[in-house]
Amino acid sequence: MKTLLVTGGAGFIGSNLVRLIAREGRYRIIVLDALTYAGNLENIQDVVNGDTVTFVHGSITDAALVASILANADIDAILHLAAESHVDRSIQSAAPFIETNVVGTLVLLEAAKAAGVRRFVHVSTDEVYGTLGPDDPAFTEETPLQPNSPYSASKASSDLLVRSFVHTHGMDAVITRCSNNYGPYQFPEKFIPLMTLNAIDGRGLPVYGDGLQVRDWLHVEDHCRGIMMAYEQGKAGEVYNFGGYGEEKNIVVAKAILKHLGKDESLLTYVADRPGHDRRYAINPRKVAHELGWEPEWNFEDGLRATVEWYQSHTAWCENVRSGEYRTYYQRQYEQRG
Ligand SMILES: NC(=O)c1ccc[n+]([C@@H]2O[C@H](COP(=O)([O-])OP(=O)(O)OC[C@H]3O[C@@H](n4cnc5c(N)ncnc54)[C@H](O)[C@@H]3O)[C@@H](O)[C@H]2O)c1
Where is 16: in which H helix or E strand? Predict the structure, then answer.
């Protein structure tokens, strides 16, 4: 059985990807995750078994650690998802984004080259393309990179490093760029879980500016299937965009969440807009449909309802995240065993 190294596998998308791969049972997985505030080992606790799925606590910026993982396992591919991922935090302080997203990606690329890892799958974002006007055509793989936030600038920088390793070193790498993901296990600083948990608690739902920003919502399970298709069928050096055909205004999403939960729209609280807030993202997923045979299986209406229900029914997970208890999980599970 081939082995995959999944970076950021305790985060939102990474944990859904690890669960998908574990469920299918076709690969061994090593998860490398620093367990920052965004990493939660509880997300994958039921699939980490120390055999087909193992967990390594550490940073992708630790070159010695990464080299030792690659030296001790015959890794077919690195699925690279570890990142600082929240735009608002990058506005407060950009340095951690450069450290993890740029320096960390470089460490992985150097280590993958040295160890002869067959393929590098770099998970990026549509935010590298910048923002769209209301009538602009959706982003394609040929859209120029015009990142607007420190977060998207750090992701675009890492994309360019990957591109350079393909061009200069002949590395077999693919880059995936997706629209906004939603689904289970997303940390509640992001729009949909934040709105959902606030609504469940009867607290105000903070809507940036006029709430008319448009995002193209992609269910995380569809995205994870796409990452695996890019790994298994993608052509070296190619970029693949994944979108959910799910364009919707933030305010419409917030109102839909309130409706699902039977809560009143008086909970909507308009707050000052994020500086430099991108107005609209939309992905044209034609290339992945034609070349990989990928189509999203979730439509946004059903996916949103299922997601709201997931947060309603996973009260222990939500409570551990809200209280900060989740941050002690690693110590309790691993360090006490010595
Ligand atoms: N969430 C989205 O809507 C979205 C959209 C497009 C692209 N992406 C990209 O997908 C990837 C995963 O996003 P996510 O939403 O799951 O993020 P997340 O913030 O939920 O998870 C990131 C994970 O990376 C880990 N991590 C952070 N720094 C690390 C380091 N130095 N070394 C090792 N691990 C580290 C964290 O502990 C966490 O488990 C990111 O690369 C992100 O840019 C996300």
Answer: helix 12-24
Q: Whose CA is nearest to atom 26 of ligand 1?
A: 82
| Rounded-to-integer distance, Cα 312 and Cα 316, Å | 10
Radius of gyration in angstroms for the set of CA atoms belonging to the chain, rounded to a whole number:
19
Are residues 225 and 284 in contact, defined by beta-carbon separation less than 8 angstroms? no
- Per-residue pLDDT of the chain (338 residues), as tens digits, is 999 999 999 999 999 999 999 999 999 999 999 999 999 999 999 999 999 999 999 999 999 999 999 999 999 999 999 999 999 999 999 999 999 999 999 999 999 999 999 999 999 999 999 999 999 999 999 999 999 999 999 999 999 999 999 999 999 999 999 999 999 999 998 999 999 999 999 999 999 999 999 999 999 999 999 999 999 999 999 999 999 998 999 999 999 999 999 999 999 999 999 999 999 999 999 999 999 999 999 999 999 999 999 999 999 999 999 888 888 877 777 765 54
Please choose from 15, 85, 124 the residue to mutate so as to test ligand 1's pocket, defined by most ligand atoms within 8 A of CB.
85
Report the predicted TM-score, pTM, of the whole model to 2 decimal places: 0.97
Residue 158's H or E segment, with its range, is: helix 150-169
CATH superfamily of 2-337: NAD(P)-binding Rossmann-like Domain (3.40.50.720)
Q: Where are the domains of the chain?
A: 2-337
155 lines ligand 1 (CB under 6 A): yes
* 3-state SS assignment for residue 78: strand
